[in-house]
Write a structure and sequence with these properties.
heterodimer; A: alpha+beta; Arc Repressor Mutant, subunit A; B: mainly alpha; 3 domains; Metal_resp_DNA-bind_regulator (chain A)
Chain lengths: ~110, ~325
């Protein structure tokens, strides 16, 4: 099959899950590049130019809080999930599970 | 110090248009992020200068990144307002440009004695410049609306669409009987009127068209008017305007217009109206019929009628792709 076509659909499918992945990971504070690495290690490749602006947007929406850590030589901005963000995460995870079940139900019985 | 300069330039380009409350913070974070990424590359054995190049290449065009930070859309008119934009761009020129055309003709013909060529050229240039202005200002207005809307509303349409906005002119309906009858009656009446005038009138009637035109041109003109009647019947029978019928209509209209204009230019089309009307009603004979005005009316009517046929033919061709309700052409 056309690889570009596959890649396009996969990217489309993953797009909405970036927020889910971020909110999940940011239960513990991370700085931008650290988060990128963590996500990549977990098999969740995100481009920096997508992730960094997204963190700012989530912060602006009140789902993340941030703090500058200046203890080290290189000051870094650490993000973590806010109370609202945690509530949002619960809803997103519930939706994720229900989608998974729904897809399973559609697929169910027929086998593959 | 070239290694820092490249990052400096990149960070500056990204953040220069961001608002003051976020710009410096974004710059500081971005600088740290780039440094982290460069360090990671250097640790894995890439040369520092090259590592910086690669990191910045991965981040991509700084203006694009700036837009994702700043929330400004990277387009003039987005999908939310685009349908409204297209609708307005279709309606506005159709209403405004003919008014401009007719208005400019009327004003010039009445106020000056310039040649028609000059008047036609000026009218064309005026319509062109009004059209360009129209397109520009409508586009600018929509772009301003698009840019000033809050990010959350961006994909929403300007106005909620409702089913009663659907066009009432559904192209695949069959041609109405009323339309056909009106068209035939009008064409035959015109042909009869012209024939009667060319034959020479007597009694109380006023001779407007010149009865001394060569017989062949009289027959041609009357015949071309009758073609319109025949066309109306043909359209009714086929059920729609086909490209062929539209082409015949345009050709017959154009032929009639050219013939009329040619006769007009030779001063053979009309009688000397001031004299005729003066004799008949005792009006002053101290006026003349501006030939350019008559010519303009002929051109406008011809273009109007031809355009209508072409538009209807195009619609029914398109409709053929749409619904099965399209009447099959026999």
């Amino acid at each position: 099959m056309d690889e570009d076509l596959v890649a396009g659909h996969l990217q489309e499918l993953r797009r909405g899950t970036i927020v889910l992945a971020c909110l999940t990971t940011l239960a513990r504070p991370h700085y931008g590049y650290g988060l990128l690495e963590t996500l990549a290690e977990a098999g969740f490749e995100v481009d920096g130019n997508t992730l960094y602006p997204l963190l700012r947007r989530l912060e602006k929406q009140g789902l993340l809080t941030s703090e500058w850590n200046t203890d080290e030589a290189r000051p870094r901005k650490f993000y973590r999930v806010s109370a609202d963000g945690a509530l949002m995460l619960d809803q997103l995870v519930a939706e994720w599970r229900s989608l998974d079940r729904a897809i399973g139900a559609l697929d169910g019985g027929e086998g593959r | 110090m070239t290694t820092t300069t490249l990052t400096d330039r990149y960070v500056w380009t990204v953040t220069r248009h961001l608002p003051d409350d976020t710009g410096p913070d974004v710059a500081r974070e971005l600088r740290a992020t780039i440094a982290d990424a460069v360090d990671a590359k250097v640790d894995s054995g890439v040369e520092p200068a090259l590592a910086e190049q690669e990191v910045l290449s991965d981040l991509g065009d700084p203006d694009v990144l700036a837009r994702t930070y700043g929330g400004r859309p990277a387009y003039l008119i987005g999908p939310g307002v685009y349908p409204d934009y297209v609708r307005l761009m279709r309606i506005l020129p159709v209403i405004v440009l003919p008014l401009v055309l007719v208005g400019s003709f009327a004003a010039r013909v009445v106020s000056t004695g310039e040649s028609w060529g000059q008047i036609l050229l000026d009218a064309f240039l005026l319509v062109l410049s009004v059209g360009v202005h129209l397109a520009f200002w409508v586009t600018l207005t929509f772009a301003v609306i698009e840019w000033s809307r809050p990010e959350a509303e961006r994909d929403r349409p300007l106005s909620e669409w409702k089913p009663d906005q659907l066009t009432t002119e559904v192209p695949w309906r069959s041609v109405g009987l009323g339309e056909t009858v009106a068209s035939v009656v009008f064409s035959v009446a015109m042909a009869a009127l012209v024939a009667w005038q060319f034959a020479g009138v007597s009694g109380n009637a006023v001779q407007v068209l010149n009865p001394d035109v060569d017989a062949i041109w009289k027959v041609a003109l009357v015949g071309l008017f009758l073609v319109d009647a025949v066309l109306a019947v043909a359209v009714r029978r086929v059920g729609r305007w086909t490209p062929t019928l539209a082409a015949v209509n345009v050709a017959s209209n154009a032929a009639a217009a050219v013939l009329l204009l040619w006769l007009l230019s030779r001063d053979e089309l009309l009688t000397d109206l001031p004299t005729v009307l003066g004799e008949r009603f005792g009006w002053s004979t101290d006026w003349s019929v501006p030939a350019a005005l008559v010519a303009a009316i002929i051109v406008v009517i011809t273009v109007w009628d031809g355009t209508e046929a072409v538009v209807k033919a195009r619609r029914s061709v398109r409709a053929g792709r749409g619904v099965g309700a399209a009447p099959a052409s026999r």
